[in-house]
Design a protein that fits this description.
Strand order of the largest sheet: 1-11-10-9-12-15
Radius of gyration: 21 Å
Number of strands: 15
Structural class: alpha/beta
Order of helices and strands: HEEEEHEEEHEHEEEHHHHHEEEHEH
Largest sheet: 6 strands, mixed
Bound molecules: beta-D-glucopyranose
Distance between the termini: 53 Å
Strand content: 15-25%
CATH architecture of one domain: 2-Layer Sandwich
CATH topology of one domain: Nucleotidyltransferase, domain 5
Length: 399
């Protein structure tokens, strides 16, 4: 069947090269397409000990947990809540804190326990560990929070309105928590944190002297964790369907890569491909999986198209990893073995069509791109760790 979502190796390499260049620009200046947001934490792999309470605000859920880090890392309490209400019109900052407090209060948290807050939206890290929201993504639009710190006001709310007693908080992106958790697997020359779920994004470490825009920062050196915000990449070789999805979104012109790749948008790409079929506006990535897993219940054309969109998503993710590996190579050509710690339900999914695992498409495409893109000496290992976000958030505040 004709594949309107096909991308040749050459096109994928164009995408990889474009991302590589835009990452360089983002390392030079603020406010660029690829934001490259530095995080001012040096994560420790060894010698961390203690309890942290961890908050995790994702695209769909809010979780609170108590994590004990020692010889063994243990999660000793966990509370969770569906937080899609965040996307509703009129939902306020106070509503958010109130909703978070309800979840947090279910746990028995020791007094003055430090907080590691995994926050899955673009935020500018401050040197005191907090971070300022730049803008919401993934359909959230709570008014009045952009430009303000995320952690401080939540701590204040919890201390004043509940019986919480907190002071220290570190706010980090979910790609940064994955990146940190990935350090538990030693022996790699470089590390990447990747999320492909409701949204998408990557983070890595760059040597501080490779990041021109932080050269004036006093007292900071070594490796800097950088949250790329690669979901905002506007790559070449997207289709008219992607333009349609973008036009109908509430953040037109932004998060173009995310809109071609992530779980929140795949159903919309599919609907754009069948504009006259009156498809359910709630069709999402789970709906596409249903088609691929129950082919006898759907038109062949639907099943094949769902697969083409799924396959393209994985190939685009591979192209973005290849682009970032090009940057890591420029920063240090001796880098050979790279671990990608990947999180997200779409990334670790599999479908019945051609008996396919998403990660297998990513690995196969990476091989091709490395061979064709002059990166033949690089080796990527894609890994997963249970509760990576919770562990990485605890590492952030206990390091
Ligand atoms: C956000 C990122 C986040 C990613 C994955 C994107 O929409 O901008 O900060 O890392 O989703 O959760």
């Amino acid at each position: 069947m004709n594949n309107q979502f096909a991308l040749s190796t050459q096109q994928l390499l164009e995408i990889a090269n474009d991302l590589r260049q835009k990452i360089e620009t983002g390392l030079q200046n603020d406010g660029t397409e690829i934001k490259c947001l530095p995080t001012y934490i040096h994560p420790k792999k060894d010698g961390i000990k203690g309890d942290a309470v961890v908050f995790d605000l994702g695209g769909t859920n809010f979780r609170a947990a108590i994590v004990s880090v020692g010889e063994k890392t243990e999660i000793t309490g966990l509370a969770e809540k569906d937080i899609t209400e965040m996307k509703m019109e009129g939902f306020t900052e106070d509503d958010l804190y109130n909703s978070q407090a309800q979840t947090i209060n279910q746990l028995n948290i020791p007094k003055n326990c430090p907080i590691g807050y995994c926050f899955s939206y673009p935020a500018k890290s401050l040197t005191n560990g907090d971070a300022e929201l730049i803008n919401w993504t993934k359909g959230v639009k709570i008014a009045g929070m952009a430009g303000n710190p995320i952690g401080g006001p939540l701590v204040k709310y919890l201390n004043e309105k509940t019986n919480g007693s907190f002071n220290k908080i570190a706010v980090v992106n979910d790609t940064i928590t994955s990146l940190f958790a990935g350090l538990m697997n030693p022996g790699y020359d470089a590390y990447i944190g990747l999320i492909v779920g409701t949204g998408t994004n990557m983070a890595t470490f760059f040597p501080s002297d490779y990041i021109p825009k932080i050269q004036d920062l006093e007292g900071w050196s070594g490796e800097t964790p950088v949250n790329l915000e690669s979901g905002n990449f506007n790559p070449p070789n997207l289709t008219a369907f992607d333009a349609e999805v973008d036009n109908n979104s509430d953040n037109k012109g932004f998060q173009r890569f995310e809109k071609a790749i992530s779980g929140m948008y795949l159903g919309r790409v599919f609907r754009a491909a069948f504009p006259n079929d009156g498809l359910d506006i709630n069709l999402d990535a789970a709906g596409l999986s249903k088609m691929m897993n129950n082919p006898e219940q759907f038109k062949l054309e639907y099943v094949e198209t769902a697969f083409q969109i799924y396959e393209r998503s994985a190939k685009l993710v591979a192209a973005s990893i290849a682009g970032l590996v090009m940057n890591l190579n420029s920063a240090d050509p001796s880098v050979k073995k790279i671990q990608v710690l990947a999180e997200g339900s779409l990334f670790w999914s599999k479908v019945k069509t051609h008996d396919t695992k998403y990660v297998d498409i990513v690995n196969a495409t990476l091989k091709e791109l490395f061979a064709e893109g002059g990166l033949g000496d690089k080796e990527v290992q894609i890994s997963r760790i249970d509760n990576a976000n919770l562990i990485g958030a605890a590492m952030s505040v206990l390091s």
